[in-house]
Amino acid sequence: MKKYLLGFLISVLAIFVVGCGADEEESNDGNNEAEEEESQTVTVEHELGTTEVEKNPEKVVVFDFGSLDTLDKLGVDVTGVPQMNIPSYLDKYEGDEYENIGGLKEPDFEKISEIDPDLIIISGRQGELYEEFEELGDTIFLGVDAENYMESFENNVNILGEIFEKESEAEEALAAIETNIADVKEKAEDSGKNGLIILANDDKISAYGPSSRFGLIHDVLGVEPVDEGIEVATHGQNVSFEYVVEEDPDLLYVIDRGAAIGEGESAAEMIVENQLMERTKAMENEDIYYLEPDYWYLSGGGLISVEEMVNEIAESLE
Predict the structure, then answer these.
(1) Each residue of 91-111: pLDDT tens digit?
(2) Which residues of 118-151 are buried (b: 16+ CB within 10 A; e: fewer)?
(3) Contacts of 213 (CB under 8 A, 6+ apart)
(4) CA distances from 161 to 158, 184, 318 (A)
(5) Which pTM does this prediction carry?
(6) Which of 6, 70, 200, 314 is the most exposed place for a label (fewest CB within 10 A)?
(7) How far apart (Å, rounded) are the C-alpha atoms in residues 196 and 163?
């Protein structure tokens, strides 16, 4: 009788243990499923809000050319882009396999609605339309902060790397750029030269200094500004060629807006290299550098464009 009772108790205990194990396994499976589901999204905090984005979204429309060139560098394809005035180094996106989603300042919301995008990427030129974009799909703002250029650029790249699970590729590309920047800063310091940045627009010019949209040259790459008093960041400070002659920079960096937007040829002959400018060290020493407007004016803030921008300044310091 005792043996029978002992056997019965052991059987009951075994059933209980198995049942608990099954419950625990089921509970663990549930937790794993929840964790797996949670890991399929990325919480993106950006200037205009916080957006929960699915990892590896399939239908992506991009209005920011810097973000587009980062995605191109990372091997991520997109669905739609604004095909007007697209930078020449990204001209493959003018192909019929990509949807044309309007202009940088005039998005084609009807076309975007037809696409039904999983992710929309915008920047400064579309900032005021953020709410309209949000109605059509998850929208993130990935503009570059001129006063914190590298920090915001790297943050944007890391966000895209996380969304598309390209973290290692993004990290490797950023590390290479940081190495190049360190080399250029050393060259700038050793050169002892100062510089001035101007934007040529038709027959007018405007100057840009530190913390401006082109301030990367001074703030990050270490070229000493010839004029510390330039304050207007976004649109620059209207100046004359007499101002340039008076400041007499060692290095003159020129960005041609007309060439960027397809309204004219290079500003070199027609605007900048005039008789008055012959009195400057920059022209006398052939230290006037016409920066690629595709990188500096149309895009910037992407893995490809920032790398090329750094390279251009490096060449000016050779």
Answers:
(1) 999 999 999 999 988 999 999
(2) bbbbbbbbbeebbeebeebbbbbbbbbbbeebbe
(3) 146, 233, 234, 300
(4) 5, 26, 34
(5) 0.84
(6) 6
(7) 38
